[in-house]
Amino acid sequence: MDQQKKNEIFEHAKAWVLEAGERIKSNIDSPRSIETKSNPNDLVTEMDQETEQFFAKKINETYPDHYLLGEEGFGDEIEDLGGTVWIVDPIDGTMNFVHQKRNFAISVGVYYEGVGEIGLIYNVMDGTLYTAKRGEGAYKNEEKLPRLDEKRPLNQSILALNTSWLIPENPHVDHKGMEDLVKKLRSTRSYGSAALEFAFVAEGLLDGYLTMTLMPWDYAAGSVIVREVGGIVTRADREELDLLNKTTVLASRSNIHEEISKDYVRLKK
After folding, report:
1. Paired residues of 211 in beta bridges
2. How far is CA 199 from CA 77, 193, 228, in A?
3. According to the model, what pLDDT value does residue 174 have?
4. pLDDT digits (tens, 9 = 90+) for 49-64
5. 216-227 vs 194-203: helix crossing angle, rounded to 10
6. Residue 97, strand partner residues
């Protein structure tokens, strides 16, 4: 992507993310219309839908030749990542949004010909914006984030890990391997927002994030940001991410990435 065009898109994206965040903040205590999607715990509110519509309108008016891949269905039918594609999660962590009124984020990734060029994650209620442009480093607000520590071993690491990995009846992964991983780690955390967990990996607050099922809008922005501080982002089996379908994801410091995947994550066929 041309540098001037990248900078222009980034400034628009940043302004829209902050504007959308203010709209959410100003309505945080309003009565909610809450529905479910794939299961009773997969929530969506009118604010998720209105926020995605906001991005759809801004993108279409400003960049009519760009595409939108969004969680709530207001984007385009996309079969490949040709051209410029905005991958948007209007509220990542909807359950937190509904129950806690905090610990949720707006996530926007901009990809050009399949390559992540721009990532933005906005921790709305904290007012913290994580950003990255490919090849230019990552930032928390206006402060550049340092590259991740590549020396701290796995047994001194904290991993964001959803408890569904540990259920013995889990059909996707060997339970014993995950149990051994938890015993190896210093500790685990679960924040309920994939975008924030990526941001915390990039900031060095977490050493890694391992999840069984993410959609592209959950990690499109975060993968750009984590890579800009030297982290590695792949599927749990270390294969390339599939940005059009549900997938496993492992994002971590480089020195523990292969160890986690090779020694502990045994996916069932």
Report:
1. 249
2. 28, 10, 11
3. 79
4. 889 999 999 999 999 9
5. 10
6. none
